[in-house]
Automatic annotation (TrEMBL):
The lineage of its organism: Bacteria, Pseudomonadati, Spirochaetota, Spirochaetia, Leptospirales. Residues 2-77 form the Lipoyl-binding domain. It comes from Leptospira borgpetersenii serovar Javanica str. UI 09931. This is Dihydrolipoamide acetyltransferase component of pyruvate dehydrogenase complex. InterPro entries: 2-oxoA_DH_lipoyl-BS, 2-oxoacid_DH_actylTfrase, Biotin_lipoyl, CAT-like_dom_sf, E2/Pdx1, E3-bd_dom_sf, PSBD, Single_hybrid_motif. Residues 141-157 have a biased composition (Polar residues). Its EC number is 2.3.1.-.
Length: 469
């Protein structure tokens, strides 16, 4: 008997999905575990798998269709089976569900200042069918498929047409000379550019110092090279207004942050700390252990460890507001805001208080890498207790971050800055770091937040204790 395959909710964060590509066509045979389509959710591009033997009799949702959870997407059954009545029923169901679909549900996102962070802050576990996934247990569906984590290109096109959550097309201006030398630094600092953009610039003899990047953090991407080549450099060109499509991820981020700022009474506490000791410790660890390149321990790794220790000492900050009670968490799960193509996401270090600095360093690097490839599982970016958002790598000295619900606080970390400081009556070279704690005033009072920052500063300025646990 033919069955309707529905858009399945893969995690508590997913409310709708977009059919990116059908890998199987009408009339193709399918078998359990075989991938039949790719679906873009609020956080990742996932693969739709069949888990029953049959034939794809009808494709109800063409590529590009954005449908709410539970909407029919296909019909799977036996070859030659009459499904005309089922098709009509499914089409009516699609129309009804579109009209009644809700706004994007909450996801685990945080913010870098007013947008993103090393982000953190927004679906399902790979290879898990709707009948066995945690989200699927809450649904009574007739689906014959499940979605698993995409191991492909994460929905990012080869032409790098997605920027800051919007699908865009390159804009071109008048012509450019193709004989400028390629350089990799600007003002003594490395130029951020994708490998594709670097190769293209080399082929065309374009000087990267003259190209303005439009990717995340000012990164130069392929579109910028093509625009520079065709547009006579970065000269002013009158542009037409464009209507940009908002992705599911951007919708979710907008919904989450708007809800957080409108419902949580935020207040902010900022402190300046002596970052010399923590930077010296980082250098010693890397030197003594022979760590180099991507394997190096970063200041942010030590910050995460300091936060885990501080949260144990001030558990009120490691809490969540519930309408009838405050939940003080028994675990310390710290999220790190990771900036990715199209938005941001917050993977969590689980039980951070039990892990060493090296373990935290390795784990967050691995999570951040998979986050950028959109290969995280829902359990890796949901249900945390505290978040750290670091914009120091962008030269931001200080900022305030929006709390990542249902957490009660988020720590915003600025850049480590070298500046003269006063010590023992003498002006000497120093290293300063500004951090700002955003607090939910329903859960955290000013004195409690101040106690957290005071202990955190003490650990950062006397960091050897971070190596003992």
């Amino acid at each position: 008997m033919a069955k309707i395959a529905e858009m399945t909710q893969l995690s508590p964060t997913m409310s709708e999905g977009k059919i990116v590509r059908w890998l199987k066509q009408k009339g193709d045979a399918v078998s359990p575990g075989e991938i039949i389509a790719e679906v873009e959710t609020d956080k990742a591009v996932m693969e739709m798998e069949a888990f029953e033997t049959g034939v794809l009799l009808e494709v109800l949702a063409p590529e590009g269709s954005l449908l709410p959870v539970g909407a029919p997407v296909a019909i799977i059954g036996k070859s030659g089976e009459d499904v005309s009545a089922l098709v009509e029923t499914a089409k009516k169901s699609i129309s009804t569900k579109k009209e009644g679909s809700a706004a994007p549900s909450q996801t685990s996102t945080s913010t870098q200042s007013t947008s993103s962070s090393t982000a953190p802050t927004s679906s399902a576990q790979s290879g898990t069918s709707a009948s066995t996934s945690s989200a699927g247990k809450n649904l009574e569906t007739k689906t014959s498929v499940s979605l698993s984590q995409n191991t492909g290109n994460s929905g990012i096109t080869a032409n790098e047409e997605r920027t800051y959550g919007f699908k865009t097309s390159p804009s071109f201006g008048p012509g450019e000379s193709e004989h400028s030398p390629v350089r990799s630094t600007r003002g003594g600092r490395p130029i951020k550019a994708s490998p594709l953009a670097k190769n293209l610039a080399l082929q065309k003899g374009i000087n990267l110092t003259e190209v303005i990047g439009s990717g995340p953090g000012g990164r130069i991407i392929k579109r910028d090279i093509l625009s520079y080549q065709s547009g006579g450099g970065n000269t002013f060109v009158k542009r037409q207004d464009r209507k940009l499509e908002i992705t599911g991820m951007r919708k979710t981020i907008a919904s989450r942050l708007a809800h957080s700022t409108s419902t949580i009474p935020h207040f902010y506490l900022t402190t300046e700390l002596d970052a010399g000791p923590i930077d010296d410790l980082r250098n010693s660890i890397n030197r003594d252990l022979g760590l180099s390149g991507q394997g190096k321990v970063s200041v942010n790794d030590l910050i995460l460890k300091a936060c885990s220790y501080t949260l144990l000492q001030v558990p009120e900050v490691n809490s969540s507001w519930r309408e009838d009670h405050i939940l003080e968490h028994g675990r310390v799960d710290i999220g790190v805001a990771v900036s990715i193509e199209g938005g941001l996401i917050t993977p969590y270090i689980r039980n951070a208080e039990e892990k060493s600095v090296l373990e935290i360093s390795r784990e967050i690097k691995e999570l951040a890498s998979r986050a950028r490839d959109r290969k995280l599982k829902p359990g890796e970016y949901t249900d945390g207790t505290f978040t750290v958002s670091n914009l120091g790598m962008f030269g931001v000295s200080s900022f305030t971050a929006v709390i990542n619900e249902p957490e009660a606080a988020i720590l915003a970390v600025g850049a480590l800055v070298e500046k003269p400081v006063l010590k023992a009556g003498n002006i000497v070279p120093g290293k300063i770091l500004n951090v700002t704690l955003s607090c939910d005033h329903r859960v955290i009072d000013g004195a409690t937040g101040s106690r957290f920052l005071s202990l955190f500063r003490e650990l950062m300025e006397h960091p050897l204790r971070l190596l003992t646990g």
